Structures are given as C-alpha cells and as structure tokens.
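Entry 14. Structure prediction run on the chain below.
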Amino acid sequence: MKMQVGIESLKNYRRLDYELHYALAELVDNSIQAYEDHKRSIDKILKQKNKKFHIKIDYDKQSDCLTVVDNASGMNMEDLESAFDVGSSKKRKDVSTSLGEFNIGLKSSAMWLCDIWEIRTKKFDEEKEITVTVINEDIFNGNPNLDTSSKRVTSKGGYTILRFEGIVQKLNSATIKKAKTYLSSMYRKKLDRGYIIEWDSPLEYEQPKLHINPDTNRDWKVSFGPSILDDGRLVEGWIGVLAVGLKPGDIGYGNAAGYSNGGIAIARRERMINPHPEAWLPRTLFGQGSALVAQRVTGEITFDDAKVSHDKSTIDPNDLTLLATILGIFNSENEISRQASAIRLERKITKKDEENAKKDLKKRISESDLGKRQNSPIPPIDDIEAMIKKALKRGKNSEIYTIGKILVKLCLERNGEAEPYAAYEKTSDKEFKVVVNLDHPFIIQNDQIKLTDYFLQIIIEMATRFKLEGDNKVLMSEYFAVKDLLMRYKVSRLKK
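Output returned:
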C-alpha cells in the first residue's frame, strides 16, 4: 500500500493550529460517521452482544501512548486505500451530510499528534483484520510505502483501533481535562442520543441551568426558526437566560450564569462548532463586550449546511455574518440582552452571613502572607512608573464605557503575575484608560471572584482618582470620600 500524495505537503500538518480536543474530534467524527453509515447492520450485531456503539479514548502516561478505539463498521483494504489517498478529488457520496467530509482529519490529527501511528481494523461484514503502521519521518523523507499486514478474524462485528506513539504534543492533566470538557460539549447531541464516548469514564454534558422568566414562571428560553436563507439553507435555534444568583451547593450552580456557560454554540450535523466553554459572542446579541450579557445569555443554533474551517473549529465568516444578522433581529424583537443584563437579585445580609464572613476572613488573613507584604518597603517611584508604562503599552484592545460624561477605556490583558493588577492613565479631561491584568495572583488564587464585580470595583477606584486629579485633591480622606460616593451607585431594576 502507498500513500498517494505530494509528500512535502504532509509536513504542514505538524504546523496546524490544532488543540488536542479538535485533533481528537477529527477521530471521533470518523468513528461516528462509520457507525451511522451502517447503523442498522451494526446495531443488529451489537444487540446480539448486548452492547452499544462505543468510542473509548485512553492516554497511558507511562508509555506516552494514546489510543482511540471504536466498535463501528471498521475498514477493509479499499476503505483504507481511500483514507490514505490524500488530496484526491474523490469525495464521499454523502458529503453534504457527513461529519468527515474533507478526507484529511485522520492524517492531519495523527501527524500533528505523534511520530508513529497505527491503524488496526476489521470490517463488520468481513473476516480480515488489517494493520497499517505509519512512521511520519519516513513519509516526510519521501517514502510513501506503509507497513501493512493482515490476518483472519472470525469474530462478528467491526472495530478500529488507533494507536499513537511518540506524542509530540504536551498531554498534561490540564490539557486532558480541557479536552474532555470540550468533547463533552461538542458531542452533547450525540451523547443525548445514547452514544458512548469514554475517557477514563463516560463523557457527560449537563444542560445549562436557565433563569425563571418572571412573566411565564418557566425557564427563560425563546426559540426561533426554522428560517430559510436566500440560498435555501435552514437555520433554527433558541436563546436563553442563565440562572442568576445561585450559590455553591444549589442545584445547577456549575451550569448557571458565568463566562464558561454564556455564548452561542452552533450545531452542525449534530456536532457543536464554537462549543462552550468558549462559545460564540456575536455583537448583535452580546453588544460591545457587556460582561453581564456575556455571562448570562446562552443558546444553540442548528445550521446543518453551514460551511466550516478544515478542522471544524469555527463557522465560515460569511455564514457567521448571516447568523449574526438573524440574532440581531431576534434580539431587537425579544430584548433578550437588555432583560438579561437588567436582572438584579435582592440580597439580605443575615447575622449568620456576617459571622461566617468574619470567620472566613480571619482564616484567610492568618493563612496568607499579608503581614509580610505589609512590612515590605515601597518600590522606588521610577520602578513603579516603569511597570505602569509597560502595562499601558500592552493595553491595546479596549472596550469603552461611559460614566456620566466621562469615557472609560477598559483593557483586559494577560501581563504576567509580576505585573500590577491595574494600570491607570488619564488621556484627556473627559477620558481615562485602565488596563486590568488577568494574570494577577489575586484573580488566579481566588476562583470565586465574580469578574464583573472585580472590574467594576477597579473602574470605581480609577474613577475616584480621575475625579481627585481633576479637582486637585490629594488627601487620602478626600480619596475615600469620593470613592464612597461612587460606591453608592444605583442599579436599575428589571420591571416585571
């Protein structure tokens, strides 16, 4: 067997901008498609064995080997030759509905992932197991011959075992945890249908916890479509408001309002593109970076005929523009964004809250190094100003907010743990700029911080400085008086 391709082009796969979950998704797509192409026959065999369609992913840190195993249709020699015919004009007959439409996913992900990879597979209606071994370096050096062997196997059913050795990507615990989270989100619709994707344990996706709409006393969820685009493609979906005000221990707390649950996921052929926890935030729905809306508005769009990037990580920009227009009209008609950002929950501070807070505060202070830091010398003014100047120089991507007649340019940057938590610059008599460092230890070590409140406190702090500078005030008592005044801002309540 030979790999039919201009060999030099394969080296580019090593430079693809993959992440682990997208590389693995290419393999999961292939397994699911292989199952669905012969679903009736495979289900009949699996039922006799009292089994279900199953994909298992495993990473052995000791041997640095990753495997992906499925019990789908498997492949025969003709299927394998087609799979290795890279760059061919031959396309699947069902390309308009297939998950694996580009015929590059296996090769690109495998060559990105490792040095040596092996396919061991058996077609469900044949009695031959075929093993193909690929050594990337041999391919890159111009040798297209692949080590191929076969043997007779009489067991019923098909399977494919992919084994990747010499992993060139870092598969640490954080990367693996992220991959599991993304795969759960990407294949949520398949998991709902009973498909099993296992990595240490079966992957699960928990549906978002929605706020109760005060007008209907039901989950705050509004559906739209199906809408027919000018080119005949169908689009439909729903937008909802995530539950606000849940506390740790409450049912649905982890799936309620928060950045990881906000945004719009796009379902294409029952596979999520732009999935949570980093879903799509179109400006027509989420505005110019409103923190509240980004944390509170969620949803799903079904767009089976959408065009996608080669790695299926994002929808084609032109199609995103179409969807953004649809969402903008939908938002204007239903005022989802305005109503979501206007939700306010009254909080009554009880005596028990006070006691718990004092007890927790005492514990946190005693376990910290605040005393040591309190006694540390103040850095030279030149060093302070140099750090601030450096931070301001990095703060380029800003969102503009207004406080009365004052413009506030807020920049969120990852400047490293050693840089200041915030940098301030007065740019005119009616404008100031703030750069917030998202890498500061205060944020990293305190995972319960609500970023909206944190950003607002920094803006208030800097607005206090801005006012004092404008009025030529310098006393600390004056500083705290102005800050106290600003902290008494009133919030508009949602009208029922």
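Residues 492-496 have pLDDT under 50 and may be disordered.
Filed with the rest of this week's runs.
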